[in-house]
Write a structure and sequence with these properties.
Elements lengths: L11 H11 L2 E4 L5 E6 L5 H8 L4 H4 L9 H12 L3 E8 L2 E10 L8 E8 L8 H15 L4 E7 L3 H9 L3 E11 L5 E10 L2
Parallel strand pairs: 5-6
Antiparallel strand pairs: 1-2, 2-3, 3-4, 4-5, 6-8, 7-8
Length: 197
């Protein structure tokens, strides 16, 4: 369970109680496919690394850090413990097939903002999981009292853009040449936002 932290107006202890009641739980998606939703913790490092290594390099381009590296995932867990991140994992049996993350900082001048990140393993796509995880992160952000969510994706990720548009996100900016591939090619990143209040 993450440390209690609330955004601009959220009740920290109330959020923790709400999270404890909400997770873990099982959800049925298309074709009677069932996944378990649970909060990420220290015990999930190996499973998250295995999941991250199923993702194509293009899927990782808009992330701030390389989640295929163990020290990065361990710092992710520390951020969860510190109350700056909440991550909901979708698991099929013991395998992570998706993650939804909310990044925020309750102490900063941007304490009313959160950043949403969704990653889905290739075999679990087009089954409603991205929409489900985005809805979970939206609900968590609202319980934290956040006012605005941002999302980043590369400009050519049309499926991701469609999901976020359906969830009420609007295109705010394109950051030209914002990310760079290991072989030195730059990629454009789209920033989208959604007002929660």
């Amino acid at each position: 369970m993450p440390k209690a932290a609330a955004g601009a107006g959220g009740d920290a202890e109330g959020v923790l109680r709400w999270l404890a009641q909400r997770y873990p739980r099982e959800v049925e998606l298309t074709d009677e496919w069932r996944v378990q939703l649970r909060l990420m913790g220290a015990d999930d490092v190996a499973a998250v690394l295995a999941f991250a290594n199923t993702l194509a390099p293009d899927d990782l381009m808009f992330l701030r850090v390389n989640i295929t590296e163990q020290p990065v995932v361990e710092r992710w867990v520390e951020s969860i413990r510190a109350g700056r991140t909440v991550t909901v994992l979708a698991r099929e049996d013991e395998r992570v097939v998706g993650e939804g993350t909310l990044l925020y900082n309750a102490a900063a001048w941007t304490r009313h903002l959160g950043e949403i990140r969704i990653q889905i393993s290739p075999g679990a796509r087009r089954r409603g999981l991205a929409r489900l995880l985005a809805g979970e992160i939206d609900a968590i952000a609202r319980h934290l009292g956040l006012q605005l969510l941002t999302a980043r994706m590369t400009l050519d990720q049309s499926a991701a853009q469609a999901v976020f548009r359906q969830l009420g996100f609007q295109r705010e900016a394109v950051l030209w040449d914002y990310s760079i591939t290991p072989d030195g090619r730059t990629r454009d990143v789209l920033v989208a936002t959604k007002r929660l209040q």
